[in-house]
Specification:
By secondary structure, this protein is mostly helical. It has 18 helices and no strands. The longest helix is centred in the middle third of the chain and has 35 residues.
């Protein structure tokens, strides 16, 4: 059996991956709640958050251009800070946060399908079927994933855009409310909502773990992330402004399903059904991407001995099926035990997201270290203005960590769970590196070694690398 991933993903499936993971059911809620809190001025927080995520995208794009492998952040960290930090970046930043977020998304899909289309079927059965189907699609191969992702993301984005345009132009069946809104009543305080707006764009880098399956990774990866951010900003801006045209701000700010209320106000029952379909597709695209990208991180880590060897197995369709089954099982377990339906799920997700921010800081630090440690290595994409965007990005992320939730009591619980997640990850990673890998925690892997194992890295690049960086290796 071939133990290498194959390059079959084009540009638009890569864009669909970048967009599909970001525009989730929870992101639609955050979007309309944000406009409910700040009114039209929420776009200021959105742009600030988009820029921070753009800086993240620039860092990931540069790192991926140097090491275009399926390991993602782990492989970028091996030459800079070693296997211990690499494992922490993946386990805490992706596996932990998304075993809560992914199962929560499936829970939402089950409820929406039950309430809108299948009232006689229990929501849990629907959620389980949803996850199993997407798991099977990913096991079947990357071609099935890419086509399903394009359909899910395409329908979702076009629908959100269409509902927003109908609302802005007043061509729907609903009646706009009679009110006038100042652009920004919060002044500079609106920037305090950047942490909320951050979730509208987070996850754009999920295209990077598919670097070994994208046809032109050094071109398509940065382009797909930047294109994805722009698409999300435009579509969210249109839908958010349509929402505040039809629903009072207080209603949007306090509702559990503000996007549903907005769509219903714009198009009546048709809008309710339509946004129900959008919610299902948003959930589908998110879980689909999670089941594609995270297993590929685990697959590549297994190749480096950082995970059990079974995660490195590919089936006849070239999919890391053991890792896919593992992530699918985690989603199902959390669905069945009911964690995703509890009132604490938002706290769990934000605690995991705190760890996600730690991973973003690691990504920025990787770029900074690479610039000094390997200044002459070939980069087909380079973040502009030196390390300016990395420094600003780190500062912005730290600011959001301290402003992760407005309620002080909830914030304390978020920090408590985040510390637990990080401690568990640190202990596991340290034990694995020390006793399973039998190496030093911070022993770095020479970049040359990573590049020589890259499937399609040219001999010319290797020779050039050795010549220009021989003093660093």
């Amino acid at each position: 059996m071939d133990n290498q991933l194959k390059r079959t993903i084009g540009f638009w499936p890569a864009v669909a991956t970048a967009v599909g993971i970001v525009v989730s059911s929870s992101a639609l809620v955050s979007l309309t709640q944000g406009f409910g809190i700040a009114g039209p001025g929420f776009i200021i927080a959105m742009v600030a958050a988009m820029l921070l995520n753009l800086f993240v995208a620039l860092s990931f794009a540069e790192l991926s251009s140097i090491v275009p492998q399926a390991g993602g952040i782990n492989h970028y960290t091996l030459p800079t800070m070693g296997p211990f930090i690499g494992m922490i970046s993946v386990i805490s930043g992706y596996v932990l946060v998304n075993m809560f977020a992914g199962s929560a998304e499936a829970h939402i899909a089950g409820l929406v399908i039950h309430d809108t289309f299948l009232p006689s079927v229990h929501p849990l059965f629907i959620s389980i079927a949803f996850v199993v189907i997407l798991g099977l699609i990913n096991i079947r191969g990357i071609e099935f994933y890419s086509w399903s992702q394009m359909i899910l993301t395409g329908v979702m984005i076009v629908s959100i855009f269409a509902i927003g345009i109908i609302g802005l132009t007043g061509t729907g069946s609903g009646q706009p409310i009679k009110t006038s809104l100042d652009f920004n009543t919060m002044g500079w305080g609106v920037l305090g909502l950047s942490a909320l707006a951050f979730w509208l764009f987070v996850g754009i880098e999920f295209v990077c773990p598919m670097a070994e399956e994208i046809k032109k990774p050094k071109i398509y990866i940065p382009m797909s992330m930047i294109m994805g951010l722009l698409i999300i900003l435009v579509v969210d801006f249109i839908f958010g402004n349509a929402a505040i045209k039809y629903v009072p701000l207080k209603t949007l700010a306090g509702a559990a399903d503000p996007h549903v209320k907005a769509s219903t106000a714009i198009l009546g029952k048709t809008g309710q059904i339509w946004i129900g379909i959008v919610t299902v597709f948003a959930t589908g695209s998110t879980i689909n991407t999670l089941l594609c990208a995270i297993p590929r991180m685990l697959y590549s880590m297994a190749q480096k001995g950082q995970m059990p060897k079974m995660f490195g197995r590919l089936n006849k369709w070239g999919s890391p099926w053991v890792a896919i089954v593992f992530m699918t099982s985690l989603f199902l377990i959390f669905l069945i035990i009911g964690v995703t339906g509890s009132k604490s799920i938002t706290t769990f997700i934000l605690a995991g997201a705190f760890c996600w921010m730690v991973t973003y800081i690691i990504a920025h630090l990787n770029v900074i270290i690479m610039r000094f440690k390997y200044p002459n290595v070939i980069r087909t994409f380079k973040s502009p203005l030196g390390i300016t965007f990395q420094v600003i990005g780190i500062a912005g992320i730290i600011y959001m960590m301290f402003n992760i939730f407005p309620d002080p009591a909830v914030k304390v619980r978020i920090y408590m769970y985040a510390i637990i997640f990080l401690l568990v990850t640190i202990i596991y990673s340290a034990c694995w590196v020390k006793f399973a890998m039998k190496t030093k925690l911070f022993k770095t892997t020479p970049l040359e070694e990573l590049l020589e194992k890259e499937v399609e890295y040219s001999n010319e690049s290797i020779v050039s690398f050795k010549k220009e960086n021989q003093t660093h290796i």
